[in-house]
Structure formats: structure tokens, C-alpha cells
């Protein structure tokens, strides 16, 4: 870690993993952006001393906050998804942005497969059945659906999408995918549109990045195309799925079930889903293991260190070409 310089401070924006927040405070003399009415005063007093922000995908840095930090050089994001940071505004201001790719792909892919199995086999619901004494009272649990060999479609064949595919090949699942563009040398079948992909598969898994480009990519038409025998799994961002349409489809039996780790307005989950045994609900825990969160923390600090030393990042995110950069 470089020598601390009072004109090049680090700012924590939003809650972070406690050990990361503690390291930022003790080793980087980082400040924490206040949330309440003290924020404008804090920014007026300290805004021009901030060289780097450390945040997470749950909070991010919007254009308004960026303009209150005129000497900001980097947004260091804990997490692979950075849709809460305004990348166009960052590019315009020559602010570089990093995320934590690769180190979480295994755990998020494990979560996707876990959700798929749980939604189709209803293990969580069957567990509740045992605990409620219903095995004794009501007899055997109803039959569910076979996972191995089911046709799986993946929306977004990036690092996480590919890690999901690799796992499901082991289950004998034929894999097809939809992506912004076809992935060169991929062994999986490319499908031109999300709706066409949904039509062809038994399970649709959402692994696309969030943000305006993918908002409601899984809309009513895509959900209709999955159909009453099909399942949806989302480990990406709630924003990629039209949640009202999803709730409606599940309520009306137009979808067999769903496994969801992400929601539109976390931590709020639509009330209607809470009583559905064909829906598995997780509190955004995709990357949430001790091992992976430690690796994400280390990569976050490596990005911060490199930026403070050289102005560069270890894992920069691609910046949009459209923004004007000097
Ligand atoms: C984390 C995530 O929950 O990496 C991401 O984009 O959504 C998760 O790994 C989140 O970033 C931690 O705040």
C-alpha cells in the first residue's frame, strides 16, 4: 500500500465486507461517505481530496456523486457486476473502473446449478415438508422433474455463463445460449434471440450483466416462450427479468418454476412468491462463500493498490467507446 497522501484520499461508498472496510480504514485512512443529511457537507469539505472510491455492485457511483468528486481517478468495485456505477460518466471524466471477475465464477455457477436442481426437484420445499411433519401425516412427497439431460439455455455466455455450461455438460444437458454476439469456438449452440432460445429449452438461465442494455431482456414474451413445463433461473441481476411478468406467469401456472438469487428491489421479494413451493428464493448469495469473498477482497485491494501506485488497474472494466475521453 502506498504512503497516504491527504490530497489523494480513498472513500468508501456504501456498505462493504467488514474486513475490507476495516482494512480501508486502518491501512488506507479511508473515509466513509455518510448516507444521511450530512452527505452534502461532507462532499463540500472533502470531495476534492478523493482520488479513489471503493464500492460494491450494490451501491456504485452515479454521475451526481462523480461530479461531487472532481479529482476522482478510479472506482474500485467489489463484485463483478458494476451496473450501479455510471460508466459513461466515468469515461467522460477519465475515471477508470475495476471489478472482480473470474474469482467468483465458480461459486456463482455452483449457485446457478444448485437453484436449477432445487427448482426442478423441489428439495427446499421437500425439506420444509419433512420439517412440518407432513411426511408422517400426508405420506410421500409428490414426484418432481428430472434434471439430467434437460435442455438448458443460457442468456449471457461470459465467464459465469461458461462456468455454468461446463458444469451442466456433466449432467448430460444439451446447452444453447444467447449472447450479444456469438462466442467464437464455443461448443454450445448459438441462438439469435432470447425468445427463440426460451422456446427451445426446458430451463433458461440468466447470466447476463445488468444495466440498461439488458433491462427486461427476459420479458413477458420470453417467459411465455419458456412455457408451463419450463423453468427460469436468475443469478445475474433482477433488472434483467421483468419481475411483474414473472410473478404473473408463476401465479397463472404459465411457468413450471423458478430459482432466483436476485430481485428487482433487493432485499424486497414479491410477496406472491413467498408461498410458492415451485420457486426457490435466495438472498443474493451467489458469490457468498468465505473463500470467494476473500478472493474478491484481495482483488479489490490489488486494484486499489495498483491505482494508487501507477494510475492503472489489475482488472479494469471495458469503457464505452461512445464517451468523449481526452
Ligand atoms: C456480490 C455480485 O453479492 O459480484 C457481483 O456482481 O452480485 C455479488 O458477487 C456483490 O457484489 C457484493 O456486494
TrEMBL record:
It comes from Mycolicibacterium septicum. The keyword Phosphoprotein does not apply. SUPFAM superfamilies: Formate/glycerate dehydrogenase catalytic domain-like, NAD(P)-binding Rossmann-fold domains. Residues 113-286 form the D-isomer specific 2-hydroxyacid dehydrogenase NAD-binding domain. Keywords: NAD, Oxidoreductase. This is 2-hydroxyacid dehydrogenase. Residues 43-317 form the D-isomer specific 2-hydroxyacid dehydrogenase catalytic domain. Belongs to the D-isomer specific 2-hydroxyacid dehydrogenase family. It comes from the Bacteria.
Amino acid at each position: 500500500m502506498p504512503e497516504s497522501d491527504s490530497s489523494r484520499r480513498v472513500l468508501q461508498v456504501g456498505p462493504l465486507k467488514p474486513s475490507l472496510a476495516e482494512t480501508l480504514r486502518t491501512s488506507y485512512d479511508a473515509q466513509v461517505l455518510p448516507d444521511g443529511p450530512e452527505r452534502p457537507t461532507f462532499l463540500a469539505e472533502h470531495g476534492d481530496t478523493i482520488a479513489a472510491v471503493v464500492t460494491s455492485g450494490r451501491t456504485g457511483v452515479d454521475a451526481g456523486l462523480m461530479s461531487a468528486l472532481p479529482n476522482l481517478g478510479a472506482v474500485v468495485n467489489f463484485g463483478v457486476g458494476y451496473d450501479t456505477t455510471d460508466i459513461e460518466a466515468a469515461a467522460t471524466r477519465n475515471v477508470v473502473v475495476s471489478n472482480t471477475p473470474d474469482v467468483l465464477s465458480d461459486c456463482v455457477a455452483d449457485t446457478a446449478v444448485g437453484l436449477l436442481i432445487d427448482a426442478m426437484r423441489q428439495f427446499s420445499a421437500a425439506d420444509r415438508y419433512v420439517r412440518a411433519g407432513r411426511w408422517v401425516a400426508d405420506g410421500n412427497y409428490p414426484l418432481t422433474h428430472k434434471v439430467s439431460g434437460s435442455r438448458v439455455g443460457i442468456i449471457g455466455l461470459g465467464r459465469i455463463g461458461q462456468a455454468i455450461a461446463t458444469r451442466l455438460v456433466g449432467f448430460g444437458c444439451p446447452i444453447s445460449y444467447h449472447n450479444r454476439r456469438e462466442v467464437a469456438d464455443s461448443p454450445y449452440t448459438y441462438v439469435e434471440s432470447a425468445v427463440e432460445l426460451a422456446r427451445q429449452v426446458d430451463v433458461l438461465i440468466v447470466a447476463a450483466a445488468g444495466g440498461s442494455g439488458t433491462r427486461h431482456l427476459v420479458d413477458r414474451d420470453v417467459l411465455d416462450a419458456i412455457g408451463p413445463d419450463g423453468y427460469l433461473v436468475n443469478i445475474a441481476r433482477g433488472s434483467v427479468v421483468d419481475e411483474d411478468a414473472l410473478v404473473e406467469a408463476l401465479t397463472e401456472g404459465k411457468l413450471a418454476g423458478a430459482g432466483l438469487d436476485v430481485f428487482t428491489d433487493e432485499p424486497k421479494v414479491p410477496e406472491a412468491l413467498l408461498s410458492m413451493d415451485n420457486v426457490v428464493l435466495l438472498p443474493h448469495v451467489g458469490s457468498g462463500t468465505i473463500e470467494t469473498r476473500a478472493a474478491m477482497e484481495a482483488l479489490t485491494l490489488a486494484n486499489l493498490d495498483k491505482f494508487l501506485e501507477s494510475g492503472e488497474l489489475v482488472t479494469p472494466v471495458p469503457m464505452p467507446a461512445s464517451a468523449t475521453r481526452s
